Amino acid sequence: MVETIHVEAATGSFQALAAGPPDRALVLVLHGFPDAPPTFATLIEALAARGHRVVAPWARGYAPSPLAGPYDLDTLAADVVALSDALAPGAPVHLLGHDWGAAVTYAACAMAPQRFGASVAMAVPHPLAFLRAAATTTQALRSWYMAFFQVPGAERIAAARDFALIDRLWRTWSPGFALPRGLRDELHACLRASWPAPLLYYRAMFRPFGAAMRRLRPASGRAGHLTVPLLYLHGADDGCIGVAAARGAERYFAGPYRAEIIAGAGHFLAAECPDDVAARTAAWIRAHAAA
């Protein structure tokens, strides 16, 4: 049974969905854009049924969690470390991040690798792999919305007609999938209460890179590579980020790394194939939790 909880962390008071016994190994689920924890409910239950404590917080900038920025990767990763300390002090935490949550997963694992156990990132490859793909493939065309969100007034256009643009992104990014009406209404309510903070993530990403990106950029030899065991999941039909964007990402990992393509799935993997994601995640954690 999924319940709503409040987590008092060093960086703020966060609301989250949770399931599973509190004494089990924690999987912290990090959502992306334009999304919120309710679309992860089935995945949360599936992971809890596989023996985990699962907590999915509304990220900074998403009501009812703190709306105040900044929204750079350093701040968002610090939130994840603080939430981990509040929920599982002294114990390894496994991360499962999607979209922006995937980017934050990489940043948190680079910031405090000793804090995290085997983790999973979905739909967004390592940030340096993504930047490389944007420069060498057609990914920049797929990512048109990132440039659009820089335009003054974009927040008004994106929210117009009850977030019609957001609905369009869901349709385009996960072709053939329709978010159930109740979940769509919950998501729209979250966005209305939060706007324009979710869009401001994209404006923060075009500012000069901070410590998070320096930690993710490899230094000489293997120094600077991520050591936390990480499984990368990508939908074969993702209309947001192409499969090619993740090619070569293994160069940024010193620890165990594997990329898996999920056939018949688009961008929003947690909503489209929650049982498949839960099975792959639980197997990865079992195989690498002690790595």
CATH topology: Rossmann fold
Portion in beta strands:
15-25%
State the CATH architecture.
3-Layer(aba) Sandwich
Mean pLDDT: 93
Give the full name of the CATH homologous superfamily: Alpha/Beta hydrolase fold, catalytic domain
Q: Quick one: overall form?
A: globular
Quickly describe the structure.
Helix content is 42%, strand content 16%. The protein is an alpha/beta fold and 291 residues long.
Structure write-up:
The structure is a single chain. This protein has 291 residues and is α/β, with parallel strands linked by helices. The chain has one domain: Alpha/Beta hydrolase fold, catalytic domain (Rossmann fold, 3-Layer(aba) Sandwich), CATH 3.40.50.1820. The chain contains twelve helices and eight strands. Helix 1 links the parallel strand 3 (26-30) and strand 4 (53-57). It starts with a strand and ends with a helix.
Keywords:
alpha/beta; 8 strands; 8-stranded mixed sheet; 42% helix; 291 residues; Rossmann fold; single chain
Topology:
Elements: E1 3-9, E2 12-19, E3 26-30, H1 41-49, E4 53-57, H2 73-87, E5 93-98, H3 100-111, E6 119-122, H4 127-136, H5 139-142, H6 144-148, H7 154-173, H8 181-194, H9 197-205, H10 211-216, E7 230-235, E8 257-262, H11 269-272, H12 274-288
